[in-house]
Structure formats: structure tokens, C-alpha cells
Amino acid sequence: MTPAIVSFAAKSGTGKTTLVVKLITELKRRGYRVGAIKHDAHNFSMDQEGKDSWRFTEAGADTMLVTSQEKLAMIKRNPENREPSVQDSIDRYFSDVDIVLTEGFKKHDLPKIEVHRRDCRKELLYRGRDLDPTLIAIASDEPLDVDIPVFDLNDAAALCDFIVQRFLDRAPDSTGTGAR
Fold this sequence. Notes:
Rossmann fold
């Protein structure tokens, strides 16, 4: 099954990560299975230099997996240094969740919620000069006069209600294994 996807976009320092963490917590509390993807425009490293996993990757392993009873982590080299599309990543790695929240995919055509903080930016990214039709709501620390719903940046429960109503058509089952 294909999970619902909602992307959170804004300039750095507006509170995207804090809001996404609150939404993950709220969605989990409601019994949904949640995935998250963070876009990083820089070369990141999840390994610690000198650790076995780092050494495997440095030696050229195309896929390296660390497993334990609680977690699984994978480092996979992108062929030809080409970043996979968001949809390819979701199709490959997120078939076991009800919803995927993404952060940092500003230019993708995913349903977006803009995070707006008055002190960080006066203009909206997607309702200023550019009108992005994928923008479905705004989480803001100030009232805004726009053509889409605006939620208080600190009211994750209300924003979660909106996301559930719009994207998750059934309540999670009593076992807590998710909506689908």
C-alpha cells in the first residue's frame, strides 16, 4: 500500500523539525504508523569515522546495514551519485507506514504545509510572488489572510486533525498497527 505523503517546507530556523517531531508524536499517539524523510542538500555522513560500519562503507560497500533488536540502519550508495526521487524512496522503503512526513523538499510537487515564523521571514514562500498549487495549509505564529487553512504553529493537535481528515481516511485499528 502507498502511504499518504505530506511535506513541510520553509526557510531554515522556522521550526520545521520541531513541528514535524510534534506531529509524529501526535500521529503515533493516535495509532498511525509514521515514516519521515529529511532532505539534505549537503553530503551527510551517518557513520562515525573508525567504526566498523564506516570502514565497510569507506572500503566501497554499496549497501551497508547495521541491525539490532530495536533498530535497523542502512547506508546505500546512490548509483552514479544521483539522488533518488522522493517517490522512489517512499515506494522502496515506506510500504509499512500509513503516512510519510517529509522535510526540506521545497521544490517538489508534494502536498506542502509551509511553516511560517514572522521573525524569520516576512513573505510566504508559496503564497507570495509564487503561487504553489501544492500548498495545502500554513502553520504560522501570526494570523494570515490567505486562500488556504492557517494553523497556529504551536497547535500540533489541530494540524494533525487536518492531516488525518485529509489524508488518512480510516481510523487506526485497535491493535495500533495503522489505518490501512
